[in-house]
Amino acid sequence: MRHTVCKAAVRGSNAASWNHARPLPAFYSVAAKGADPANKSTAKAALTVKALFEEFERLHIAPKLKPNTTASYRSAFQVHIDPIVGRKRAADVQPADLLRYQAKLDGHRASANRVLAVVSAMYSWAGEHAFIAEGTNPAAKVTRFANKKRERPLSLEELESLGAALTEGENVGIPCARSEQKGPSTHRRQKIVASSSTENLPGRFVS
Protein backbone atom coordinates (compact mmCIF):
# COMPACT_ATOMS: atom_id res chain seq x y z
CA MET A 1 0.00 0.00 0.00
CA ARG A 2 2.82 2.35 0.91
CA HIS A 3 4.61 1.55 -2.33
CA THR A 4 1.48 2.33 -4.39
CA VAL A 5 1.01 5.69 -2.66
CA CYS A 6 4.62 6.68 -3.29
CA LYS A 7 4.28 5.87 -6.98
CA ALA A 8 1.12 7.91 -7.21
CA ALA A 9 2.81 10.81 -5.45
CA VAL A 10 5.75 10.65 -7.85
CA ARG A 11 3.47 10.51 -10.85
CA GLY A 12 1.53 13.50 -9.50
CA SER A 13 4.66 15.55 -8.91
CA ASN A 14 6.02 14.71 -12.38
CA ALA A 15 2.74 15.61 -14.02
CA ALA A 16 2.62 18.89 -12.13
CA SER A 17 6.16 19.81 -13.17
CA TRP A 18 5.45 18.82 -16.81
CA ASN A 19 2.29 20.95 -16.87
CA HIS A 20 4.19 23.87 -15.37
CA ALA A 21 6.99 23.68 -17.90
CA ARG A 22 4.79 23.08 -20.94
CA PRO A 23 1.29 24.61 -21.23
CA LEU A 24 -1.52 22.30 -22.20
CA PRO A 25 -2.60 22.50 -25.83
CA ALA A 26 -5.89 24.19 -26.65
CA PHE A 27 -7.42 20.75 -27.26
CA TYR A 28 -7.04 19.86 -23.56
CA SER A 29 -8.05 23.33 -22.43
CA VAL A 30 -11.37 22.97 -24.20
CA ALA A 31 -11.84 19.51 -22.73
CA ALA A 32 -11.03 20.78 -19.24
CA LYS A 33 -13.92 23.23 -19.53
CA GLY A 34 -16.31 20.37 -20.18
CA ALA A 35 -16.69 20.92 -23.94
CA ASP A 36 -16.16 18.33 -26.61
CA PRO A 37 -12.96 19.31 -28.53
CA ALA A 38 -14.05 17.14 -31.45
CA ASN A 39 -17.09 19.33 -31.95
CA LYS A 40 -16.20 21.86 -34.68
CA SER A 41 -19.03 24.17 -33.78
CA THR A 42 -17.62 24.44 -30.24
CA ALA A 43 -14.20 25.39 -31.60
CA LYS A 44 -15.75 28.03 -33.85
CA ALA A 45 -17.73 29.48 -30.99
CA ALA A 46 -14.64 29.71 -28.75
CA LEU A 47 -12.50 31.55 -31.33
CA THR A 48 -11.76 35.13 -30.27
CA VAL A 49 -11.41 38.05 -32.65
CA LYS A 50 -7.72 38.35 -31.82
CA ALA A 51 -7.09 34.67 -32.54
CA LEU A 52 -9.05 34.97 -35.77
CA PHE A 53 -7.00 37.94 -36.92
CA GLU A 54 -3.76 36.07 -36.15
CA GLU A 55 -4.89 33.27 -38.46
CA PHE A 56 -6.05 35.79 -41.04
CA GLU A 57 -2.67 37.50 -40.98
CA ARG A 58 -0.64 34.29 -40.99
CA LEU A 59 -2.54 32.51 -43.77
CA HIS A 60 -3.75 35.34 -45.97
CA ILE A 61 -2.46 38.85 -45.30
CA ALA A 62 1.27 38.24 -44.90
CA PRO A 63 1.80 35.70 -47.72
CA LYS A 64 -0.63 37.14 -50.27
CA LEU A 65 -0.83 40.92 -49.86
CA LYS A 66 1.72 43.66 -50.42
CA PRO A 67 3.88 44.78 -47.46
CA ASN A 68 2.20 48.20 -47.27
CA THR A 69 -1.25 46.59 -47.23
CA THR A 70 -0.11 44.11 -44.59
CA ALA A 71 1.17 46.94 -42.41
CA SER A 72 -2.09 48.85 -42.87
CA TYR A 73 -4.19 45.82 -41.83
CA ARG A 74 -2.00 45.17 -38.81
CA SER A 75 -2.10 48.80 -37.71
CA ALA A 76 -5.89 48.99 -38.03
CA PHE A 77 -6.25 45.88 -35.90
CA GLN A 78 -3.77 46.87 -33.20
CA VAL A 79 -4.91 50.48 -32.86
CA HIS A 80 -8.66 50.14 -33.34
CA ILE A 81 -10.08 46.61 -33.52
CA ASP A 82 -8.16 44.78 -30.80
CA PRO A 83 -8.93 47.29 -28.01
CA ILE A 84 -12.68 47.17 -28.59
CA VAL A 85 -13.45 43.56 -29.58
CA GLY A 86 -10.14 41.65 -29.51
CA ARG A 87 -11.11 39.54 -26.49
CA LYS A 88 -14.65 38.92 -27.65
CA ARG A 89 -15.60 35.71 -29.34
CA ALA A 90 -15.76 36.31 -33.06
CA ALA A 91 -19.29 34.91 -33.18
CA ASP A 92 -20.46 37.40 -30.52
CA VAL A 93 -19.42 40.63 -32.27
CA GLN A 94 -22.51 42.58 -33.32
CA PRO A 95 -23.00 45.45 -35.78
CA ALA A 96 -23.83 47.63 -32.76
CA ASP A 97 -20.26 47.19 -31.46
CA LEU A 98 -18.90 48.61 -34.69
CA LEU A 99 -21.53 51.33 -34.96
CA ARG A 100 -20.66 52.68 -31.52
CA TYR A 101 -16.97 52.77 -32.36
CA GLN A 102 -17.69 54.32 -35.75
CA ALA A 103 -19.48 57.18 -33.97
CA LYS A 104 -16.35 57.85 -31.91
CA LEU A 105 -14.32 58.19 -35.12
CA ASP A 106 -16.65 60.71 -36.72
CA GLY A 107 -13.78 63.18 -36.99
CA HIS A 108 -11.57 60.53 -38.62
CA ARG A 109 -13.87 59.06 -41.23
CA ALA A 110 -11.12 57.54 -43.36
CA SER A 111 -9.88 55.56 -40.33
CA ALA A 112 -13.43 54.45 -39.51
CA ASN A 113 -13.94 53.19 -43.05
CA ARG A 114 -10.61 51.37 -42.98
CA VAL A 115 -11.55 49.61 -39.73
CA LEU A 116 -14.82 48.42 -41.25
CA ALA A 117 -13.00 47.26 -44.38
CA VAL A 118 -10.52 45.17 -42.35
CA VAL A 119 -13.25 43.63 -40.18
CA SER A 120 -15.36 42.83 -43.24
CA ALA A 121 -12.43 41.26 -45.12
CA MET A 122 -11.45 39.18 -42.10
CA TYR A 123 -14.94 37.83 -41.49
CA SER A 124 -15.55 37.11 -45.16
CA TRP A 125 -12.28 35.19 -45.38
CA ALA A 126 -12.98 33.33 -42.14
CA GLY A 127 -16.44 32.31 -43.33
CA GLU A 128 -15.14 31.04 -46.66
CA HIS A 129 -12.53 28.88 -44.91
CA ALA A 130 -14.80 27.57 -42.13
CA PHE A 131 -13.13 29.35 -39.22
CA ILE A 132 -16.55 30.74 -38.36
CA ALA A 133 -20.06 30.16 -39.66
CA GLU A 134 -20.36 31.48 -43.20
CA GLY A 135 -22.46 34.63 -43.46
CA THR A 136 -21.30 35.93 -40.07
CA ASN A 137 -20.05 39.42 -40.87
CA PRO A 138 -21.01 42.24 -38.47
CA ALA A 139 -19.39 44.87 -40.70
CA ALA A 140 -21.65 44.01 -43.64
CA LYS A 141 -24.61 45.77 -42.05
CA VAL A 142 -22.75 48.95 -41.09
CA THR A 143 -22.91 51.81 -43.61
CA ARG A 144 -19.57 53.49 -44.13
CA PHE A 145 -19.02 57.22 -44.14
CA ALA A 146 -19.26 58.93 -47.52
CA ASN A 147 -15.89 59.93 -48.91
CA LYS A 148 -15.44 63.67 -48.95
CA LYS A 149 -13.87 65.33 -51.97
CA ARG A 150 -10.36 66.38 -51.20
CA GLU A 151 -9.14 69.83 -52.09
CA ARG A 152 -5.52 70.42 -52.99
CA PRO A 153 -3.51 73.48 -54.01
CA LEU A 154 -2.62 73.87 -57.67
CA SER A 155 0.87 72.87 -58.70
CA LEU A 156 3.34 75.38 -60.12
CA GLU A 157 2.74 74.13 -63.67
CA GLU A 158 -1.04 74.35 -63.21
CA LEU A 159 -0.77 77.92 -61.87
CA GLU A 160 1.37 78.95 -64.85
CA SER A 161 -1.13 77.40 -67.29
CA LEU A 162 -4.01 79.15 -65.54
CA GLY A 163 -2.21 82.50 -65.60
CA ALA A 164 -1.44 82.18 -69.33
CA ALA A 165 -5.08 81.32 -70.09
CA LEU A 166 -6.35 84.32 -68.12
CA THR A 167 -3.88 86.68 -69.83
CA GLU A 168 -4.91 85.39 -73.26
CA GLY A 169 -8.56 85.85 -72.37
CA GLU A 170 -8.00 89.48 -71.36
CA ASN A 171 -5.90 90.42 -74.41
CA VAL A 172 -7.33 88.31 -77.21
CA GLY A 173 -10.68 87.22 -75.91
CA ILE A 174 -12.17 83.81 -75.41
CA PRO A 175 -13.80 82.36 -78.56
CA CYS A 176 -17.41 81.36 -78.10
CA ALA A 177 -18.50 77.96 -79.29
CA ARG A 178 -20.94 78.17 -82.20
CA SER A 179 -24.10 76.17 -81.81
CA GLU A 180 -25.27 74.20 -84.80
CA GLN A 181 -28.24 75.76 -86.57
CA LYS A 182 -30.70 73.29 -87.93
CA GLY A 183 -32.99 75.87 -89.59
CA PRO A 184 -32.17 78.51 -92.19
CA SER A 185 -29.39 80.97 -91.47
CA THR A 186 -30.06 84.33 -89.78
CA HIS A 187 -29.53 86.19 -93.06
CA ARG A 188 -31.96 83.89 -94.88
CA ARG A 189 -34.58 84.31 -92.13
CA GLN A 190 -34.32 88.10 -92.43
CA LYS A 191 -34.96 87.92 -96.21
CA ILE A 192 -38.00 85.70 -95.66
CA VAL A 193 -39.45 88.10 -93.10
CA ALA A 194 -38.81 91.10 -95.35
CA SER A 195 -40.44 89.36 -98.31
CA SER A 196 -43.55 88.40 -96.38
CA SER A 197 -43.84 91.92 -94.99
CA THR A 198 -43.68 93.37 -98.51
CA GLU A 199 -46.43 91.05 -99.76
CA ASN A 200 -48.78 92.32 -97.08
CA LEU A 201 -48.35 95.99 -97.97
CA PRO A 202 -51.57 97.72 -99.17
CA GLY A 203 -51.79 98.53 -102.87
CA ARG A 204 -49.62 95.60 -103.95
CA PHE A 205 -51.24 93.47 -106.62
CA VAL A 206 -50.23 89.98 -107.47
CA SER A 207 -50.46 89.19 -111.20
From TrEMBL:
- State whether keyword DNA-binding applies: yes
UniProt keywords, alphabetically: DNA integration, DNA-binding
User: Cross-referenced SUPFAM superfamilies, in alphabetical order?
Assistant: DNA breaking-rejoining enzymes
Show the Pfam families listed in the entry.
Phage_int_SAM_3
Region described as Disordered: 173-207
Asked if the Swiss-Prot or TrEMBL record annotates the protein with the keyword Electron transport, the reply is no
- The chain positions of domain Core-binding (CB) read 47-127
Q: What is this protein called?
A: Core-binding (CB) domain-containing protein
Protein source organism: Kaistia terrae
